[in-house]
Write a structure and sequence with these properties.
The chain is an alpha+beta fold. The chain folds into two domains: 40 residues; 70 residues, no CATH class. Helix content is 50%, strand content 18%.
Length: 119
């Protein structure tokens, strides 16, 4: 009879420990899930091209609100539109990349040269 009592004690102890570890796992999983959900970006930036009378431009929106509307080529001293939609979107993508990296969206003349924008 003594062995049977020890076996029952062992199994009860094992079950108790398993349940507490399982409960701990569930709690950690739920906390991790809540953190993951709260860290997701709700706001996303979107780019789209704009057809202008003499060329192209682009706009960047955040939650359907325009935050940047660029209808002329930046940096150069003239009010000149982008010649093609591809050029406008190339600069827009660069600005979007800078914004997503929390950098200044400033475009330099070197950026225009690297992206082969016709000035």
């Amino acid at each position: 009879m003594t062995t049977n009592t020890k076996n029952e004690f062992f199994w009860k102890l094992l079950q108790k420990n398993f349940l507490s570890v399982f409960n701990l796992f569930i709690i950690i999983f739920l906390i991790g899930l809540l953190i993951f959900i709260s860290c997701q970006k709700e706001e996303s930036l979107k780019i789209q091209s704009i057809k202008i009378n003499n060329g192209w431009g682009y706009s960047i929106t955040k939650n359907e609100k325009i935050i940047i509307k660029q209808t002329v080529i930046p940096v150069i001293g003239k009010n000149k539109n982008f010649q093609t939609e591809k050029e406008a979107l190339a600069i827009g993508q660069l600005v979007l990349k800078k914004l997503n990296a929390n950098n200044s969206p400033t475009i330099t003349k070197n950026d225009l040269i690297l992206l082969k924008i016709k000035i």
